[in-house]
Design brief:
The complex is a heterodimer.
Chain A: E1 4-5, E2 10-14, E3 19-21, E4 24-25, E5 32-39, E6 46-52, E7 60-61, E8 64-69, E9 74-79, E10 88-96, E11 103-105, E12 109-114
Parallel strand pairs in A: 2-12
Antiparallel strand pairs in A: 1-4, 3-9, 5-6, 5-10, 7-8, 8-9, 10-11, 10-12
Chain B: E1 4-7, E2 10-13, E3 19-25, E4 31-37, E5 43-49, E6 56-57, E7 68-72, E8 75-80, E9 89-96, E10 105-106, E11 110-114
Parallel strand pairs in B: 2-11
Antiparallel strand pairs in B: 1-3, 3-8, 4-5, 4-9, 5-6, 7-8, 9-10, 9-11
Classes of the chains: A mainly beta, B mainly beta.
């Protein structure tokens, strides 16, 4: 089974609107971390936000927030007030337990922000 | 956040040649990894770069094809040997600091095109 599933290959959003990028995960380890990365066309991977499995509150970082629904095993990324510079690929990732060499990445969602 | 720089940022190579990618990290980084991202795909871990010893390769990757060195804590190289067009990818150096949330930091990526 896929560890990380991103079901939206591509998304469009109007500038200044909010957008939600979906991510579901699969693990039986009670301790895990969930991450979102942004990859612009330049290729660099930029860390956006982190959610730990034991965190009680949803993570937020500026315009990014993570809608963490543990029972559903989902970790959706919400970008508020979209900007043109948000156009990029977005990858959801998971690290299980303390396996630091085991990051599982989803297939990515390409976000296009329209002016 | 950790600073990771790699070079070259991009190159066009001829079939049958080899290319070495260099990665320099700051002193916060404890573990270093090399990832491959084939066109339109997600990230795949090639290997963990171990200081002063042989790298730990993931299934499907072998030392003869992807020799890796890490002579000290802050420097690593990845060589892509005897290249074919199937090796055209973005190669990403990444590192963990062991601090905070344990997120992976990435270099800018090296985009290789093999003709």
């Amino acid at each position: 089974a896929q560890k990380i599933t991103q079901t939206q290959p591509g998304m469009f959003v109007q500038e200044k609107e909010a957008v939600t990028l979906d991510c579901t995960y699969d693990t039986s380890d009670p301790s895990y971390g969930l991450f979102w990365y942004k990859q612009p066309s330049s290729g660099e991977m930029i860390f956006l936000i982190y959610q730990g499995s034991y965190d009680q509150q949803n993570a937020t970082e500026g315009r990014y927030s993570l809608n963490f629904q543990k029972a559903r095993k989902s970790a959706n990324l919400v970008i508020s007030a979209s900007q043109l510079g948000d156009s990029a690929m977005y990858f959801c990732a998971m690290r299980e337990g303390d396996n630091f060499n085991k990051f599982y990445f989803g297939s990515g969602t390409k976000l296009n922000v329209k002016p | 956040s950790a600073v990771i720089s790699q070079k070259p940022s991009r190159d066009i190579c001829q079939r049958g040649t080899s290319l070495t990618i260099q990665c320099q990290v700051d002193s916060q980084v404890t573990m270093m990894f090399w990832y491959r991202q084939q066109p339109g795909q997600s990230l795949t871990l090639i290997a963990t770069a171990n200081q002063g010893s042989e790298a730990t390769y993931e299934s499907g990757f072998v030392i003869d094809k992807f020799p890796i060195s890490r002579p000290n804590l802050t420097f690593s190289t990845l060589t892509v040997s005897n290249m074919s067009p199937e090796d055209s990818s973005i190669y990403l150096c990444s590192g963990l600091t062991g601090l905070n949330t344990g997120e992976l930091f990435f270099g800018e990526g090296s985009r290789l095109t093999v003709l």
